[in-house]
Amino acid sequence: MVDKFNGLRDLQSLRSIVAPIWEADFGNAKWPYPSESQSSNDVQTIYEGIIDSYDCTVTTQTLPHEKNHQRQAFSFSFTKPGAISLKTQGHLSANENLPSNAPFFLYFTSGGFILDCSKHEAKLMEKISSDSNSRVFSIKYPLAPEHSIEDIMIAAKLTYLWIKENAALLNKDEGSPFIMGGFSAGAGLAINLAAQETNNKYIDKLMLASPFTGLSEEHLEMCSNDDTGLTKKDLENCARHCIGLTSAKDPQLFPAYRENLVLPPTVLLAGERDLLRPFTEFLRDKISNENDVTYKTVMSTDPSKVAEHTHFAWGYANTAMVEMISEVSAKNTLHQMQRRKPTLTPAQDVHKVASVEPTITSATTQNKRKAEP
Q1: Model confidence, pTM
Q2: Could you tell me the domains of the chain?
Q3: In this predicted structure, what is the pLDDT of residue 356?
Q4: In what order do the strands lie in the sheet with 44-51?
């Protein structure tokens, strides 16, 4: 795989070689995207509106259940006068009978901004959804060089805003935990969106696996680990296809270059031999609210397991994400239980609530006595 990568100059050749390799490794998803060729009975427009000055049209298709899993395919089209039309696609996966307050995980797929990995990662997202009892919405975004890195970022932001404004259409309860993240380039998009979020309380957890944090020459010089799956040459190809010199260190595109970077509580994942491990640690050191950062690496002295802690450490990242989603869900459940505890007012009948909260009853009784003339 490395030899094939290193000798490539043509992007179409790269895409044609990588696709069957990943299909062999991860299988091909059985989730078709909505398309114009499908009948109008299967695909319907569910929303039209203006988001961030863009007109938004969304089509959706309910897909057959698979292994007690509910699945929906989405297709977004964002248009604005004088701007290029931007399209994204997504898949929503959830166990049957999942409560509306279950965690919601918004995931951006990988691919170095130039490769479409969405279908190959769909199975992984379905497994995360099943194992963590969460809703997982994975997003496929425009690619370079057909689109600029700026347009890719805008398309991701527009999709994120639509999800925030239309949570009910996705069966997401207002109080359910919202987790955002991605792998590699997708993690880079998640960082960008979280850094722009004015209300970081909306995002309960940011989960970033081997995040793409920059594409400048200085940034690429960080890469020195012995990764058997991804090479520095691959990253240089990504940079050559998707970014210009003027934007390679733009802090608006790559927030890791900001002087003061504040993110929601963040989990960083990287393999010990991961080519992007230095990228991950660079981000860890840049986050200003460092007390809210959890950093995990895959480390093993067993040479036979080297593939498990390179950039393509899918199994490890998958397990870690499930653990973190479950942890967020448990904290949210505890918080909701605490919020449901009865609260008392001086006007309440003390005798009726004495068996529920005797300590508060005592205080209430004292207050009432003090108030008596």
Answers
A1: 0.79
A2: 2-340 (3.40.50.1820), 348-373 (no CATH)
A3: 34
A4: 44-51, 54-63, 69-79, 86-95, 135-140, 104-108, 178-183, 205-209, 266-271, 293-298
